[in-house]
Specification:
heterotrimer, A alpha/beta (400), B alpha+beta (544), C alpha/beta (430), A: 400 residues, alpha/beta, 4-stranded parallel sheet, globular, B: 544 residues, alpha+beta, 9-stranded mixed sheet, 6-stranded mixed sheet, 17 helices, 24 strands
Chain lengths: 400, 544, 430
């Protein structure tokens, strides 16, 4: 008999709203929908764990079902739990192993970045990855930087930060660390313009890809490490991230899914736009010039789930002459490492197709979003460049 | 007027009646079973589904205990798909007598029931949701039994062997010629009269036995004892949890398919009140608070419904309080007792001793008609319970259809799954999403299992027994009754109406929290959106 | 103060209130925890369907007038007849601006046909349920076709026909039952037999299969002047799809709402959300209000699940959290409460009085009329008994009316939402 953990399925009154808003149920017949996979099936799985359906693996954990549920059922969490507790998953999954260990892969790839970037663009290599690892041939990989952000920051940026009295801790995350220093630099620029200095602490991957691929123990190890490290930051210092997924993990997944005590960091950790929005409302608005650009904003699923979209919108509204089109909330389909798997690729693309069509209809000059994997997906499927809200502010800052 | 000639007439379609029909048919005799409502709609369908190990009776009633364990073992063989061998625990709480469990162990030893004491830690391993404050625990071979599946399988076997099963047919007179009973006069759902003649009538009508006997001019005094139960929305325990103390209210939590059940209370009721199935607020209080003491999670779980059943107790020797009257089997040959030839009454007992009761009644009936065949019901598996491929392998054979759907259907129908499920898309589409009931299963039930309306359908397939209590599936079910059951559109909507009213009876006493939300939602859909109660004009009387 | 008006609950009442506030230039936000009950509604707006004896109401505003005089606790009485009329006009105008036309039959109720063939009185309906042309056809005695998509499990048209025929308007009428199959070349591998209404609507939101469907309808309906189908005419592109299909078939296409989700209701939901955001309102999804200090007789701020240290504050607040189903009212085995601010609730203290003996009792169930106690200004009362002057209540969370028995759910939601908005706007102008 399984010790019952998440019993929120008890509140489900079978209204079927979650199934309306599930992008995967809409995209494929292989997934029966969150209601059936979550609260309906959970009662059967409790009776007999054998009654678990393989179709659970199609759930992207976008959490739109939870956003839609009027009964406060943690549907996506129930499905994730069922996936990892009941489904018999192959032990030997080299692709999933590599894709979720972003620190491991990232540290090697940055050391060999010239080669990595070159190789990842080669057709033959992509075909090889498809045949051996079942990574879709069409999938674009991000570029790797030549060093880690951590190293670069400590050498080049940290000294100048000491001049600032007020400081924030920046949880940079793997994407900034290995793939895109410019976002990190933009963040520092914006913080500095708002009279905040930036510190970084030792960090490991927040664990989102590890959780998504079922490496729960490793995710937990990383989480414990991160909590301990971040807790060492002085009292009162805020912890800010530029990745909405990292923010979601630090604030919510660590406690609700990994069952860890993150009370020491939860209150002071936030996604960047929330911190900036709060500062703006206190009057701490840096001087910005008129941008005169039309942009479309896409809200990432995890940010939406955290209630963080309004902060991003509040921040972007303060950028002068930014013609902002707020796109209807749609999942982009990549769902982290989900879209890098060949068996999910078609679903992933189908889920995102609505978003891509909307972007085209909006005719922006570029797209804004807070999540790095959303950025990858949109850039791959449309002709638009995708910028982070922090980058947009950085662009607007008046040079003193 | 229609007329049927047969050998044995069985009155009552509960487990006992269906068991008798099966036994009789297996011995080569013709049989007609008459049931005034639906199979297992009486006490059989209103019990807690505990497959006793007998431990409960080991202290006070050794004979009952021995019967229990013997039938327990038989049922685990012949009714494999109706029974779950979960095992059970007898736990002592801090407020109970800490030595009582020793009496239990003693009694079990005498009765041949393997009851062993286990450590509290081990008990918590077996049942993690158990109250960690327990003092001691005994492990016993309890199991659970689904009374609907059991009765339906017996009736199915009987009808496959030639018996005629007539549900929704009411006996309104016993045809007597002098001191001999010749048959019964009945009236069916369409109000048509029908006379059935047979050599022996077996009265297996449970608590209605008193009424049937009085139709034959015989006095039979029953001491109906009402017992109430509470169903919890999902399965909070994997093994049966019993309170280790002298039998009292609220001392078991029984898992059953996808739900758990807290039981029972016990209250003598006067005979004219046996139709009152209402559960009082006080009974619910008792059940919830006692259930919580065994499984603390119960406090935070949705109470799905509450209902009661009436134990058909017969006084054999002058006792009068419900719990202490022996629940032993009572076989009455009315020719010996009352001078009326051709009538047998089989009463008392428990759900799980139904087969033994049927055996005794059939033995006597066979003696009366001069047939010398021995009972074989303890050896033949019921339809669906045959030894066949395992559930896991069966599920694999239907790859492409979700495991949860195939598995649920297998749970309910055992090896008969092959006759129910096909790969046709229409067949495996879900009608009841809570309990994963497919259209194929519903079609099978309507065509083969004596289903005349939605309430019958619910007993055979579990449609409407999940958290939504019919919110979505009742409507779909009514549509399918038109398609497969030949109901007219008006009939199907009346059945829908009746089904929802029937569900309401059980939801009403526990109307709070998520149950209240569900009821409000259901009401909005059927009354607000569909406007059901305007088209249907049925007369109804409040029965309390 | 972050906002001028903070509306807790994004249903029909909350959205109506929000649109009115935002359109007046107020800084408005709606907090919404989960999708609203429009997803299960008929897609029509019931203003006043039945009187106190359960008889059909022909002229809803007349009945509203009676209620204003006789039932002080009814939300209509608190708003007043004039506001009810203004609110309805506002709603019609608002939805029309987004392209969703809500029709009415002058000042009279009209009927919409339910899946079980009942005729329910209502005041506003969408084009595919009530329109002048449709009204004429349905009342003219002409042949109608009641159809279904073959294999659709959420609708059984035989039941519709059987009960329609019992009604005086349709008795003796030539009604043909037919099935149309979904286009066999449809771009989906989904089990057609497990389609929900939303799947149908998604397919028809693109115009891809229209010609084929039109062909099937024409063939199956023969010379019927009107065709009814379970609601499917798309959500986003409803207007154009409906028009095109009617032109292609030459028949009045009638939509019948069936098991949830309600496509008709979804259209209203999307139209209102679009309107609200268009006026600059902030729609914050997945945000649940959890508590807020009201000791002094004024709500100081609202603590929400995601707001953490920074509770949200506003000059005025609207509580439109719905009934039990939506979480606006909560119950345990002993009592009924308003779970966010613990406002006083009009409800019986004995649980056995919450419900009627029969489920489909003609008197309905008492719990449907339970709700937050408000004064004539829609202000609630806190635990201590003080009126909370900066909070207004709207929609199903209100006490004093039974939306099902009276047939006034939509009307009360829109009226109370509108009335609360007017009050807030009035206060802020001072």
């Amino acid at each position: 008999m399984i010790k019952l953990e998440n019993i929120s399925f008890d509140h489900c009154i079978k209204c079927t709203v979650c199934t309306i808003y599930c992008p995967v149920a809409r995209a494929t017949h292989l997934f029966p929908g969150p209601k059936q996979s979550g609260p309906d099936a959970e009662r059967l799985r409790i009776k007999n764990p054998e009654l678990v359906d393989a179709s659970l693996k199609y759930c992207t954990n976008c959490k739109r079902c939870e956003i839609a549920c009027p009964s406060d059922v943690k549907i996506a969490e129930i499905i994730q739990n069922a996936k990892w507790n009941y489904l018999k998953i192959n032990r030997f999954r080299p692709r999933d192993w590599f894709m979720s260990r972003t620190d491991f892969v990232g540290s090697i790839a940055t050391r060999l970045s010239l080669m990595t970037n070159f190789v990842l663009k080669l057709r033959a290599v992509r075909v090889f990855m498809y045949l051996l690892l079942r990574i879709p041939y069409r999938r674009a990989f991000p570029n790797y930087e030549r060093s880690t952000f951590e190293n670069m920051f400590r050498k080049k940026i940290a000294p100048s930060q000491r001049d600032y009295e007020k400081r924030v801790v920046y949880f940079h995350g793997c994407f900034v660390n290995y793939n895109d220093h410019s976002l990190g630099k933009d963040f520092v620029k914006v913080m500095n313009a708002m009279n905040y200095g930036v510190d970084i602490m030792k960090e490991k991957c927040c664990g989102v890809p590890l959780i998504a691929n079922g490496y729960i123990e490793k995710a937990r190890k990383n989480a414990v490490y991160n909590i301990k490290s971040l807790q060492r930051a002085e009292q009162g210092k805020r912890i800010v991230t530029t990745s909405s997924s990292c923010a979601y993990a630090l604030k919510y997944e660590y406690s609700s899914f990994l069952k860890l005590n993150n009370s020491g960091i939860i209150e002071r950790t936030d996604h960047s736009t929330r911190f900036i929005s709060e500062e703006f409302s206190l009057g701490n608005v840096p001087k910005m010039k008129r941008l005169g650009i039309r942009a479309a904003y896409h809200s990432p699923c995890h940010l939406e789930c955290m209630g963080g979209v309004m902060h991003t919108l509040n921040v972007l509204k303060m950028v002068p002459a930014l013609d902002l089109v707020v796109l209807n909330s749609e999942c982009c389909g990549i769902a982290g490492t989900y879209g890098f798997k060949n068996e999910n690729y078609a679903i992933s693309q189908s889920v995102g197709s609505r978003l891509f069509a909307m972007i085209d209809d909006a005719h922006p000059e570029f797209v804004i979003t807070d999540c790095e994997t959303c950025k990858m997906q949109i850039e791959m499927n449309t002709s638009y460049r995708v910028l982070h809200p922090v980058t947009v502010i950085a662009m607007a800052l008046k040079e003193e | 007027m229609k007329r049927i000639e047969t050998d044995i007439i069985v009155i009552g379609g509960g487990a006992t009646g269906a068991g008798v029909a099966r036994d009789v048919s297996m011995r080569g005799l013709r049989c007609v079973l008459i049931e005034k409502n639906d199979l297992a709609s009486g006490t059989t369908g209103r019990n807690h589904g505990l497959l006793h190990s007998g431990a409960r009776y080991a202290v006070k009633d050794l004979e009952s205990a021995r019967e229990c364990i013997s039938e327990n073992r038989i049922l685990k063989e012949i009714a494999r798909h109706c029974v779950e061998d979960t095992g059970g625990l007898f736990v002592t709480l801090p407020e109970d007598d800490p030595t009582y469990h020793r009496n239990l162990i003693e009694g079990c030893r005498f009765a041949g029931i393997s009851a062993r004491e286990i450590s509290v830690r081990r008990a918590l391993q077996i049942e993690p949701n158990l109250n960690p404050a327990i003092l001691s625990a005994l492990h016993v071979p309890d199991g659970t039994i689904d009374p609907f599946r059991l009765t339906s399988a017996n009736a199915l076997d009987a009808s496959e062997r030639g018996a005629i099963i007539m549900t929704h047919t009411r006996v309104n007179a016993i045809i007597r010629k002098g001191t001999r009973v010749e048959g019964v006069s009945c009236i069916d759902k369409k109000n048509e009269q029908l006379n059935i003649y047979g050599s022996v009538i077996i009265n297996a009508s449970g608590v209605w036995g008193q009424e049937i006997c009085s139709m034959a001019g015989i006095e039979l005094t029953m001491f109906p004892s009402k017992g109430s139960m509470l169903i919890i929305d999902y399965r909070v325990n994997g093994v049966v949890v019993n309170r280790c103390r002298p039998p009292a209210d609220g001392d078991i939590v029984v898992p059953g398919d996808t739900v758990s059940l807290i039981g029972t209370t016990s209250m003598e009721v006067p005979y004219d009140k046996i139709h009152d199935n209402n559960v009082t607020d006080e009974e619910i209080e008792v059940l919830l608070s006692d259930g919580e003491k065994l499984i603390p999670k119960v406090a935070r779980t949705r109470a799905l419904r509450a209902y009661s059943g009436v134990r058909p107790l017969i006084a054999v020797s002058g006792e009068s309080t419900g719990r202490n009257i022996s629940r032993g089997i009572t076989l009455i040959d009315h020719s010996a007792r009352d001078g009326i030839e051709g009538l047998i009454t089989i009463a008392g007992g428990k759900l799980m001793t139904y087969r033994l009761m049927a055996e005794k009644a059939t033995d006597l009936a066979c003696k009366k008609v001069g047939v010398n065949k021995k009972c074989a019901t303890h050896k033949m598996p019921l339809p669906g319970s045959e030894k066949g491929i395992s559930r896991r392998r069966r599920i694999k054979k239907f790859s492409g259809i979700p495991d949860s759907v195939v598995g649920s259907t297998f749970y309910r129908h055992g090896q008969r799954l092959q006759r129910i499920m096909t790969r046709e898309k229409r067949n495996y589409r879900l009608i009841c999403e809570c309990e994963m009931v497919t259209e194929g299963e519903i079609e099978y039930a309507i065509k083969n299992l004596n289903v005349k309306d939605l309430v019958d359908l619910r007993r055979r397939t579990r449609i409407g027994m999940g958290p939504c209590q019919g919110e979505l599936c009742a409507y779909r079910g009514s549509g399918l009754l038109q398609e497969y059951g030949g109901a007219s559109p008006e009939e199907s909507v009346e059945m829908l109406h009746d089904f929802l009213e029937e569900r309401w009876k059980g939801v009403r006493p526990v109307l709070w929290g998520d149950g209240l939300r569900e009821a409000e939602f259901t009401y909005w859909i059927y009354q607000g959106l569909f406007g059901i109660s305007r088209p249907v004009k049925t007369k109804r009387k409040r029965t309390d | 103060m972050k906002y001028d008006a903070l509306i807790i609950g994004g249903g029909l009442a909350g959205l109506t209130c929000g649109i009115r506030c935002a359109a007046a230039g107020l800084k408005t936000a709606i907090l919404s925890g989960g999708m609203n009950s429009l997803h299960f509604s008929s897609g029509s707006i019931d203003l006043m369907g039945y009187d106190d004896e359960g008889e059909l109401v022909k002229k809803p505003f007349d009945q509203v007038k009676k209620i204003c005089r006789a039932r002080r606790d009814h939300p209509y009485a608190k708003a007043g007849l004039a506001t009810v009329k203004k609110a309805m006009e506002f709603f019609i105008e608002t939805t029309s601006k987004t392209g969703l036309t809500m029709n009415h039959n002058g000042d009279m109720n009209h009927f919409h046909i339910t899946g079980l063939g009942a005729l329910k009185p209502t005041y506003l309906s969408q084009e595919s349920v009530f329109s002048p042309r449709g009204h004429d056809i349905l009342n003219s005695g002409e042949k109608i076709a009641v159809m279904n998509f073959s294999g659709f499990r959420d609708y059984y048209p035989e039941q519709t026909v059987a009960y329609l025929k019992k009604n005086r308007i349709f008795a003796g009428r030539d009604i043909v039952l037919a099935e149309i199959s979904l286009p066999w070349y449809m771009d989906t591998q989904k089990n057609l037999h497990e389609f929900r209404s939303i799947d149908l609507a998604r397919i028809f939101d693109t115009a891809k299969y229209l010609p084929r469907i039109a062909e099937e309808i024409r063939r199956a309906a023969g010379d019927a002047a009107a065709v009814s189908l379970p609601a499917f005419l798309g959500i986003k592109n409803y207007r154009t799809i409906r028009k095109r299909l009617e032109d292609m078939t030459g028949k009045f296409i009638y939509e019948i709402p069936t098991l949830p989700p309600s496509i008709l209701g979804l259209r209203i939901d999307q139209a209102l959300k679009e309107s609200f955001i268009g006026y600059g309102g902030e729609f914050i999804a997945n945000e649940r209000a959890e508590s807020g200090p009201v000791d002094s007789g004024l709500l100081e701020h609202v603590n929400t699940r995601n707001s953490g240290r920074e509770p949200v504050s506003s000059k005025y607040y609207v509580l439109s959290t719905g009934s039990f189903f939506s979480g606006g009212l909560a119950s345990n085995s002993q009592r009924i409460t308003e779970p966010v601010f613990n406002f006083k609730v009009d409800a019986d203290t004995k649980r056995s009085k919450w419900y009627s003996w029969f489920f489909f009792d003609a008197k309905s169930h008492p719990f449907l009329s339970y709700g937050v106690r408000t004064d004539k200004n829609f202000n609630p009362v806190n635990e201590k008994g003080n009126t909370v002057k900066n909070v207004f209540c709207a929609g199903a969370v209100l006490s004093g009316y039974d939306p099902v028995r009276e047939g006034c759910g939509g009307g009360v939601a829109i009226t109370s939402g509108f009335a609360c908005a007017e009050k807030i706007i009035g206060e802020l102008k001072k």
